[in-house]
Amino acid sequence: MKSKLEILKENLDKAFGKKLESMRESLGQLTIVIAANNLLDLATQLRNDQTLGFEQLIDLCGIDYSRYRNGRYDGPRFAVVSHLLSISNNWRLRVRVFAPHDDMPILPSLIKIWNSVNWYEREAFDLYGIIFEGHPDLRRILTDYGFIGHPFRKDFPLSGYVEMQYDSEKKRVVYQPVSIESREITPRVIREDRYGGLKH
Length: 200
What we know:
Layout (H helix, E strand, L loop, with lengths): L3 H13 L3 E7 L2 E6 L4 H10 L7 E9 L13 E9 L4 E8 L7 E3 L9 H11 L2 E3 L28 E6 L4 E6 L23
Parallel strand pairs: 2-5, 6-7
Antiparallel strand pairs: 1-2, 3-4, 4-5, 8-9
């Protein structure tokens, strides 16, 4: 008897064939890679085709591959991974889509297919700078309105670019250059035999 994962693989292969760039199994779950220009058509079919039946998008996140494999990766920099759930068929699927351009990552919004993606796409835009074409309200969701940059990008400095401080004379919050100096923290190695009252 075939497992649910084997049935799902067969159904995906039958529905999409060569339209899938890849299909891989890991940790008991399938991940498919779809080209950006096929995303909306294939996502609609993932939802509407009863042999697949992915009624719900339960998560979406951005990924920056710029330092993947210690910088030895030479593929596209930005990707979006969506996690889909089929309640009727009781299975899950990961869908990965790479943005075609690294300098301006743009992907089509999935909001007309799964409206639950609204805030997930806003989060990926805010933290990675990925633009979702067709999103009705693409604006920052976690950082401040005046925030500069996208903090989950691998080239974003840990200290940020600016810091906020309340100016009592101006009676408002002001932005100023970061005053934190970068430093290297070396962990303390404890070599005492009776440290903390413990006997070794």
